[in-house]
Amino acid sequence: MPPDLRGAMRNLATGVCIATTYVDHGDRRDHDAVTVNSVTSVSLDPPLVSLCLKLESRFLADLLTTKKWALSILDGSAAAAARLCSGDRASRVGALSSLPASPGRHTGALVLDAPSWLECELWDSFQLGDHTMVVGEVVAAAAGDPRVPLLYLRGRYRTLDDTDPPNGEE
């Protein structure tokens, strides 16, 4: 019997982001977005982050073509946006028109209204099992006012009741 990796990982709380990319078709730019919770800070020098996407993902295909994407780190008020961008491609593209976003100055990928965001350019990619890990160099980033973060735990979106560690510990 294979290990119950999915069941075990359901107990790991993760942050929730929306990744955006695009593909150009002549004078038309088609944007796409997908909800991800597999984001990891890899290196500070150079500044690198990674995310993992299913091999058959059209979002991944667009990202590998464009080699540019943005990550918007979501706050607790963005659970509906996370749900919208976790569906099929047609639903995600439709959702993008209703979300407050603007093209990033460095990549052209859409940056959503979020407490923090990153613009990335492809550094490398690795096929790992049924996913591809993409590593991006962060070419722009911003952190606004801290807001209660959106988390994913046990198959549900959740928020923290307290954004500060107890007793000032970190």
Question: Could you describe the 3D structure shown?
Answer:
The chain is α+β, with helices and mostly antiparallel strands and 170 residues long. It has a single domain (15-157), classed as Pnp Oxidase, Chain A. 16% of the residues lie in helices and 46% in strands. It has helices at 5-9, 58-66, 79-84, 89-96; strands at residues 14-15, 17-25, 28-36, 40-44, 47-54, 68-73, 101-103, 110-112, 116-128, 131-143, 150-153, 156-159. It has a seven-stranded antiparallel beta sheet with strand order 3-2-6-9-10-5-4. A three-stranded antiparallel beta sheet has the order 1-11-12, with no helix packed on it. The longest helix is centred in the middle third of the chain and has 9 residues, at 58-66. The relative contact order is 0.22.
Reconstruct the topology from this structure.
Layout: H1 5-9, E1 14-15, E2 17-25, E3 28-36, E4 40-44, E5 47-54, H2 58-66, E6 68-73, H3 79-84, H4 89-96, E7 101-103, E8 110-112, E9 116-128, E10 131-143, E11 150-153, E12 156-159
Uncertain ranges: 163-170
- Overall pLDDT metric: 90
Secondary-structure-derived class: alpha+beta
Note the overall shape.
globular
Helix fraction by DSSP (H/I, runs of at least 4):
10-25%
SS field, number of helical segments: 4
What is the string of SSEs from the N terminus onward? HEEEEEHEHHEEEEEE
Percent range for β-strand residues: over 45%
CATH architecture: Roll
CATH superfamily: Electron Transport, Fmn-binding Protein, Chain A
What value does the Rg take, in angstroms?
Answer: 16 Å
What can be said about the biggest beta sheet? 7 strands, antiparallel
| Count of folded domains | 1
The strands making up the biggest β-sheet line up spatially as 3-2-6-9-10-5-4
Give the strand tally.
12
Distance between the termini: 39 Å
